[in-house]
């Protein structure tokens, strides 16, 4: 926080300066008006009147200019620090390890980057405003007290009540508005359900029931709203009333001072203006405190993220990955997810360079985990994972991950062009390379048929693709940088079974000449592998070719049948 | 009460602006809604005038105190002015209180009626409407549009009228005091009005941009978080952080633009205020020398200046609230103008208790093209008919016509020889019930969800319905029995349990004809069997049309209708259709071989 503010010291200084001159100008205008009345109008000195008027205009220019500057500086500082903080948070989140993201929910992180940072921004905005308010308050009190301490007390005495009642008002309002919000939420829920569930409502002809519920909620909303109105009616008129009391005091007591010759008449006018000037600063007085507490809670939550160090980082002296055939070796690997039971206690596995191995197992046996340990998404607890003879923890992460292409189960595509999605690993890749990758993945044909070809925007808000098409783009993306290792992490499971063979053809193409690790449960996909490894209870229980295992492993048949049963439940539509 | 934040806090950017014509229309249509409250509205206006008068009395009393008390050294006149001022302040307090309460009463009652009325209207609309409109849009009518009105009712309206009265009142009073000085003083008003109009437009535009940029930034952020694994897998953290920087900085730029706009506007307003004082003091002073005005008048003018400037700024800001409320009302009226497509005919009759279902030469389409072509189908009393076919073939549409969610374009749908269009809607919904098996659950308890089928059902009846489906054990197992909250954490119902609730709901409604839309999701084998058993019991003794997504369901029906491309090419029992070796037979063969794989273990 302090860091981001520090870099804006010049703006801050300018802002403070402008704030001070703004306050000074504001306070001097009523004094000048009073002077004009007392020294010009009352004695009938027209030259003095002219001079005072001109000085007032000049002060007005100063006030106007410094008002603009102080506003600009204050908001600029606030937005700058907000923007920088968000940038820092994002950069940090991008570097944080998988295990962190497994725990954190996207929505939560979004709230950090959005709501929490906004809360801090609001507090930062309030700081200069509060400083200016305090200066105004001090200045006004000083000017008034110089004239008459009793009058000052009498005139301003009631005004702190404004702050007190404002605080009391918001304190009382808070539970009522919370309730009102809740009631509005209930009402919205009835509407949402009735609309989303309109088939159920109409199917049973239960419109009346929903209407009764809505009426009930609408009554509740009305009653709670009336309650807020009641509270408002207790407070808001005070905002006019308390200053009016001060004005009455000025007129009466100040008037008598004037009659006694202890005060000049012009000050009656000046003091009136001062009272009006103090209404806002006093109403605002509590805001900074309240906002600061919200902001510090928000800052605490942000800090919790920012102090989390990325766990998977380059070791000091991490080395470049030398060229190699892509041999993967697990040696006595023990691993468990944070807070979970161990997945492996002693896993040994060898995948020779250029070999395609399928890892098969039921849910929870750790087959996907195998795929995640190779690119070092997680670090092993014990033992080691070697790529071409080097412990993956000794290699530069960037090199390691560049040498591995991954196709995830959920094919996340970015809201970007087809080209940029495929060239994700290397945005500078020439178009020929991109086309080559697409061709290899069997995606070139449908891409050419898309409205803007390779320039078509896909992703959440873009052109909608079928599961198979998304998958093929993901495959193209994985092989673009010509990785020595290819990992297919359940890559076909979300593809329509009838379309699976097309993907399989593409896969066969991209697998050739690479070490491939296949995580799968569909027999047809498994059959792509040279060798199958059956995992059970965190260990390798059987190895061999698909046909081989089908024949001799009871457990293998069970695992496949179980997976098939899940699929068989798919609908008739899918079969068609 | 006039205090509202100056500056860009609490500003709302507006999307649509009402044209003058639209605004008149909205006001015209609003009139009948407000008629019941006419008396109270007039009273509110009177109270507001009272309150404004109290506010405006202040400077006039200061003037009187100066001119009649201070200048001639008359302490009595000074005391009287101060006392009157005190009275005015106290009266203002009471008027203020009364205004807020009165306006709230009228406004909230109006809103409550409007909510109820719009919702009733919504519920009366046909399925075509709900399929055409997005859920979000419809919900927005009842939420964000109502909120815009609520905001107006709670704060905006009072402030708007009050500031208007204050502005007009202040001008009136200063003209009465000295029209010459008033004219001189008002010179500073036009620039402020012009600047305020510019500011409102410019800041609206700027805020729309800010909103867009925030949206873009949030989606980059979201993508960066949702896709973080892919980003890391391909080692693109840095590039993605750079990409975020672009949208992040764009958001910053848009924000700074709003700051620039207000940094231009507020100096103008502040300067105009000070210039006004200079004019009053300078020219007023000259007028005092010439005996045109008194010192008290000059003082009062300085004080009234505040009452001229604040309202301009406030009104300019409130204009947005007013516009939004107007736009919201317009959208609500548009919704109220929507005519229900399915309505009861005058002289409609109740459907007989029992009877068969008959579709004669039925054609139907949602748009210009027909989805169903000349379908004729008879389902005798007590028969279970399954509709089978590919997605988009028209099975669900057919089911919707049977329940009169839509009326056929040609031909007719009859139940017990009565055309559905001639039936009362109440009897129609009693006899024919549509059950989306993938049960939709409303917030509330299990009981609340079941009685959707029969709102006045007793617990006894509910238990009977549960028992009739043989689900006593399943429902007893809920943590709080029938009172279990369906959406609460911990007791969230599983997909299977949702289906069971949906079936009990149907059993409670006890229709003669059941239109069942089978669930597409798969359940674990145990629950699957329970659901199937309950379904079997539910359909017993009823005429049933089931939109079958699984061939196992179809195979159990009495007869099967294959729906394809809006026609019914095959109709008969399972065995007949298998023997026919048509579409159904080939579908069944494909499915059976797949299932065999699953059964292999």
Description:
The complex is a heterodimer of chains A (576) and B (601). By secondary structure, chain A is an alpha/beta fold. Chain A is 64% helix and 10% strand. Chain A is built from 21 helices and ten strands. In chain A, the strands form two sheets. Chain A has a six-stranded mixed beta sheet with strand order 6-7-8-3-9-10. A four-stranded antiparallel beta sheet of chain A has the order 2-1-4-5, with no helix packed on it. In chain A, helix 2 packs antiparallel against helix 3 and helix 14 packs across helix 16. The radius of gyration of chain A is 36 Å and the shape is elongated. The two termini of chain A are 59 Å apart. By secondary structure, chain B is α/β, with parallel strands linked by helices. Chain B has three domains: 179 residues, Up-down Bundle (ABC transporter transmembrane region fold); 114 residues; 243 residues, 3-Layer(aba) Sandwich (Rossmann fold). Chain B is 65% helix and 9% strand. Chain B is built from 21 helices and ten strands. Chain B is elongated. The N and C termini of chain B lie far apart (77 Å). The interface between A and B is large, with 150 and 159 residues.
Give a nutshell description of this structure:
Chain A is α/β, with parallel strands linked by helices. Among the domains of chain A are: 1-147 and 287-310, ABC transporter type 1, transmembrane domain (ABC transporter transmembrane region fold); 355-575, P-loop containing nucleotide triphosphate hydrolases (Rossmann fold). Chain A has 21 helices and ten strands.
CATH superfamily of the largest domain in chain B: P-loop containing nucleotide triphosphate hydrolases
- Shape, per Cα inertia axes of chain A: elongated
CATH class (first level) name of the domain at 355-575 in chain A = Alpha Beta
Distance between the termini of chain B: 77 Å
Major sheet description of chain B: 6 strands, mixed
Quick one: overall form of chain B?
A: elongated
Based on CA atoms alone, the radius of gyration of chain A comes out at: 36 Å
Judged by helices, strands and strand pairing, the structural class of chain A is: alpha/beta
